[in-house]
Amino acid sequence: MLPLLTDPAREVRHRVAYVTGLRTGHEELAVRALGERALSEPDPLVAAVMTGGVARHDVTGRAAWLSGALTSRHPPAVRAAAAWGIAQAGLPWTTEVTTAVAEAWEHGDVLNGDVIEGEQWRWSDNPLAETLIAMADPVRAAEICLPPRHAARGPLLRMAHPPH
Length: 164
Known about the structure:
Blueprint: H1 10-21, H2 27-38, H3 44-55, H4 62-68, H5 76-89, H6 95-104, H7 127-134, H8 138-145, H9 155-160
């Protein structure tokens, strides 16, 4: 199934990334395949699903890979997924993670702003809220959501706490 991670159809790559990210009994192989493909995946949302899949497997090298995915050379969706993964895995929270959260979500919900086959990012219904809750610095989390001089970030609070 792993060769389908390079299928020409976006929907196929998306589904295979999700299935591969689930616990498979072959975590090392899954993480290696998802990690390698995520770095060359042309679709940011599919790359983010692959990044989330890497985060779900407790394997050697996961923390280093996720930290590398935080850098600004990666699309905002991948950076957001890496931060979510670090939060979910309980990995150390660093300044780089906080910066990636602020920059990745600066212009809206990068993980749920796109839809593939009627579905949004599969790993979480509200990845921003889950990531902000895990932040080691609640003051910085509040600043990301509510800076009065940065109105563009104000919508982050609404995304983190959508109306029911």
